From TrEMBL:
Domain of life of the organism encoding this protein: Archaea
Protein's UniProt name: ABC-type multidrug transport system, permease component
Record keywords: Membrane, Transmembrane, Transmembrane helix
Pfam families linked to this entry: DUF373
Transmembrane segments: 161-181, 187-207, 219-243, 255-273, 285-305, 317-338
PANTHER family on file: DUF373 FAMILY PROTEIN, HYPOTHETICAL MEMBRANE PROTEIN, CONSERVED, DUF373 FAMILY
Native organism: Thermoproteus tenax (strain ATCC 35583 / DSM 2078 / JCM 9277 / NBRC 100435 / Kra 1)
Keyword Transport on entry: no
Length: 347
């Protein structure tokens, strides 16, 4: 396999310092890195260039010098032309060294936006992000924070998140005060809760599992996150009412087992549909899981809430448990029949 170690400066900082790209070959890339760091010693691009040389040296030991090359290509400060410029320079590199795959080197997410463009020419087998480790005094830290805040506010790719979204939320809040619409406050509150909910998923590692689901089942991912969020809010409000916590009248919720039961079955149904459209098969376990979730929340959860409230009826609990068991058994029979009959019906 012939591998090209490629550092992509997508926004063209290197080119703006008067250095011509593309640059091919270890010695030339090393010379470029020295030139650039002398002109911009505070920029991480130079460190990424040296990292590309280091990666090249490591691959040469394993694959041989004739099978590895290192190069630097630049894009453009114009976001619309950046990837096209990268591809133009990459074509020149590939004309000199016809690689089978690319080892992509970057110094951050902005450069990695060019990965999809690079993959139109050669497969990217690995991505190496170079993070510069620094130890600075208080004054230098303040200067560094000011630099990145200025970058976050001025550069279009970050500005919509650092300025646009907060400004929109503040605009809604000010509007709600001006015209006295409480519903806007509720929307903002739910929005903040939803963001914190996503942060909880990310912090506890649930996001990593959901990210894999997202790659394969986009609709199911979205439906699952929204459904889980609504059910959690609903249960918190309903449980508060059950255990006697006083809530504002507009936030009080009378528990209805049908609502969470249906909401939790919707993601399972979405997954089942997407899976069938992809593979032409209905998985029996998914059907049983849907029935199990619906029956559990419809029959068992109300009894548990009654137990928390201190007025559990044992006879009701036994009847609910029996109904739950029957529903699961029926779902198993239905799953077997559906998995055999549906593919032939659709065909």
């Amino acid at each position: 396999m012939r591998v090209l170690v490629l550092y992509v400066d997508r926004d063209g900082d290197i080119k703006q310092e008067g250095i011509t790209t593309p640059v091919i070959g270890r010695d030339n890339v090393l010379r470029l890195g020295i030139q650039y760091i002398l002109r911009r010693p505070d920029d991480s691009d130079a460190n990424a260039v040296f990292a590309a040389v280091k990666i090249y040296d490591g691959l040469v030991e394993r694959l041989g010098k004739e099978n590895v090359e290192v190069a630097v290509v630049c894009g453009s400060p114009d976001e619309r032309m950046a990837n096209l410029t990268v591809l133009e320079e990459l074509n020149q590199v590939l004309a000199s060294f016809d690689a089978d795959a690319v080892y992509f080197v970057s110094d951050g997410p902005s450069d990695e936006a060019a990965i999809m463009a690079v993959q139109t020419r050669r497969p990217v087998i690995s991505v190496e992000r170079v993070v510069v480790k620094q130890s600075r005094s208080v004054e230098e830290t303040v200067s560094l924070i000011r630099y990145y805040l200025t970058k976050a506010v001025k550069e279009p790719e970050y500005r919509k998140y650092t300025v646009g979204v907060p400004s929109f939320l503040l605009f809604l809040y000010a509007l709600s005060i001006l015209i006295n619409l409480s519903i806007i406050n509720y929307i903002l509150g739910l929005g903040v809760l939803f963001i914190l909910f996503l942060m909880v998923l990310y912090g506890f590692g649930i996001y990593d599992f959901l990210k894999d689901v997202l790659r394969r089942y986009e609709v199911t991912f979205t439906v699952s996150v929204l459904s889980l969020f609504i059910v959690i809010i609903y249960f918190v409000l309903a449980l508060s009412t059950v255990i006697g916590i006083r809530l504002p009248s507009n936030l009080s919720v009378q528990f209805n087992q049908l609502i969470p039961s249906l909401l939790l079955v919707v993601p399972i149904a979405s997954y089942s549909v997407e899976s069938f459209l992809r593979n032409g098969l209905i998985k029996r376990g998914v059907v049983v899981l849907g029935a199990f979730v619906f029956s559990f929340f419809y029959f068992i959860i109300p009894q548990l809430l009654d137990m928390v409230a201190g007025h559990l009826d044992v006879l009701d609990l036994l009847q609910s448990t029996l109904a739950f068991s029957i529903a699961v058994i029926v779902s198993i029979i239905a799953a077997v029949a559906l998995s055999r009959a549906l593919p032939s019906i659709v065909k």
